[in-house]
Amino acid sequence: MTTMTKTEGAPAPTGPEGFLSVRDLQVTFSTEDGPVKAVDGLSFDVQRGRTLGIVGESGSGKSVTNLTILGLHNPQSTTIDGEILFDGKELITATEKELEKLRGNRIAMIFQDPLTALSPFYTVGRQIAEPFMKHTGASKKAAWERAVEMLAKVGIPNPRERASDYPHQFSGGMRQRAMIAMALVCDPDLLIADEPTTALDVTVQAQILDLLQDLQQEFGSAIVFITHDLGVIADTADDIMVMYAGRAVERGTTDQVLRSPQHPYTWGLLNSMPRLDSDLSAPLAPIPGSPPSLLNPPTGCRFHPRCTFQDRVGGNRCATERPQLDVGRASACHLTPEQKRTVFIEEIKPRLG
Ligand code: ADP
Ligand code: MG
User: Fold this and answer.
1) Residues 6 or more apart from 92 whose CB is under 8 A from it?
2) What number does the ligand 1 atom closest to the CA of 74 have?
3) Does residue 307 form part of some domain?
4) Is the beta carbon of 294 within 6 A of some atom in ligand 1?
5) Tally of domains within the chain
6) Could you say which ligand is closest to the alpha carbon of residue 198?
7) What number does the ligand 1 atom closest to the CA of 294 have?
8) How far is CA 24 from the centre of its chain?
9) What is the rounded distance in angstroms from the CA atom of residue 108 to the CA atom of residue 62?
10) Which 3 state secondary structure label does DSSP give 280?
11) Does a structural domain hold residue 240?
12) 219 in any annotated domain
């Protein structure tokens, strides 16, 4: 861990401290080609009982953020600065032993591919029972009962019989449910879900999202839901943070971000989102260009090379000056609040239909 050197202004804190509070997080990988700053000054909060959706294109630093919270980076090649407070405890400086105790117990994770979490060699029931035994000291028999109960909770039919199956005997959607059962078996206070539904068909995606919501009601955990698809979290997240090239560009409640988005990148994401109510053959409008390399990211606003609103800001500001993300409902863009409002209402909204 090195001391922080700020070349550009750090973002302001996001408001009252959350159950999970991330402050000015910076994650840099040393690679053969040079340092890759995958996360550059990220701040956010999640409260108990709430779901934060983190959205952004592939490569925007979502998974790196997630793995940093979990303490899963290789310390040899990774430099981490900033603060991650979980229920008042600083995680960046925590020991591996302390983190191991938190992972799978108070902090749980689900990933896109259940096969990375489930071993092919053990029954599903055993894999759910084991973390429960490890973290609670329950007997083998009690833990097995708990595994059966969890499989029932996540909607696996005949859970008592299915607990003795191996992962390959489950369908993709059922494996995803089993992984959720495994993640939730210890009643975690924080659940981090990194694109957990991306590989599933739309119907199963919707079922899994419903399931997470029900379980959150029951367990009251804080959820961080990571996705590249704004549509996926529209019904599930309470709050949304939009990330681009390692930084947060917009945040607010889901309603605020979806109904009155303020950042040109968010406008682009919304415009490229398939809409259920529109003609399926209507062409989507992907954001022109592609996300930058983080080896040599653009100066100023990292989105400026792809942004069509630079001339309205004028004075080359977008290319030279980093836009700040204020506290609370905010967007990091040099357009004035008035411009953000009118451009969205007059030019963007009509296209969204
Ligand atoms: P995503 O938003 O798609 O989850 P990631 O967080 O996985 O994006 O990656 C963000 C950036 O960090 C990418 O440019 C990726 O190539 C880079 N990156 C991730 N892990 C490493 C690593 N271990 N070493 C070097 N670069 C990495
Ligand atoms: Mg990812």
Assistant:
1) 1, 68, 80, 81, 82, 83, 84
2) 23
3) yes
4) yes
5) 1
6) 2
7) 14
8) 16
9) 16
10) coil
11) no
12) no
* Domain ranges, residue 320: 261-352
Element (H, E) at 233: helix 230-233
Q: How far is the CA of 317 from the centre of ligand 2 (A)?
A: 31
Minimum-distance ligand 1 atom for the alpha carbon of 58:
3
Give the span between the Cα atoms of 350 and 95, in whole angstroms.
52
pLDDT(13) > 50: no
**Beta carbon of 31 within 6 Å of any ligand 1 atom:** yes
Of the candidates 206, 183, 202, the one whose C-alpha atom is nearest the C-alpha of residue 194 is 183
Answer yes or no: are the C-beta atoms of 271 and 252 closer than 8 Å: no
198 lines ligand 1 (CB under 6 A): no
Ligand 1 atom closest to Cα of residue 195: 4
Structure tokens at 140: 């083998």
pLDDT tens digits, residue range 280-320? 555 567 888 999 999 999 999 999 999 999 999 989 999 99
pLDDT in tens, 51-66: 999 999 999 999 999 9
**pLDDT at position 320, please?**
97
27 has which bridge partners? 39, 80
- For residue 7, give the DSSP letter: S
d(CA 157, CA 148): 11
CA of 226 to the centre of ligand 2 (A): 8
The model's pTM is 0.90
What is the C-alpha R_g of the chain? Answer: 21
Q: How confident is the model at residue 211 (pLDDT cuts 50, 70, 90)?
A: confident
Distance 239 CA to ligand 1 centre (A): 24
Domain assignment present for 334: yes
Place 10 in a pLDDT band, splitting at 50, 70 and 90. Answer: very low
SS3 52: strand
Would the CB of 29 count as within 6 Å of ligand 1? yes
Q: pLDDT of 69-116, one tens digit each?
A: 999 988 899 999 999 999 999 999 999 999 999 987 899 998 887 777
Tell me if residue 184 falls in helix, strand or coil.
helix
